[in-house]
Write a structure and sequence with these properties.
Layout (H helix, E strand, L loop, with lengths): L45 H37 L13
Length: 95
Amino acid sequence: MDSAKGPQAGAAGREFVIAAGGYRDIEGRLVLDWEIESQPRPELSDDVLQELDSLRQEVAELTERMDFTERLLASSRREELDNPNRMDRPSEDHR
């Protein structure tokens, strides 16, 4: 029998590691179930879904307001840089 064709030749690339013991996640909790999909997701009530939709709308509105404010501040700053000698306050002669 050719030594290259012995029982070990066909086992190349088929290594298994069997480990035992308790495994913990990053927070120190014991990992009991390795199957992520095995845990059923709870159904959300209509009230929760409505509240979620309301929160999404509020976040969208706040995002728009923040974008507007950032653009307003940027244009004001740009105007200051373009006109450094411009005086925003009236001089004492114009009171």
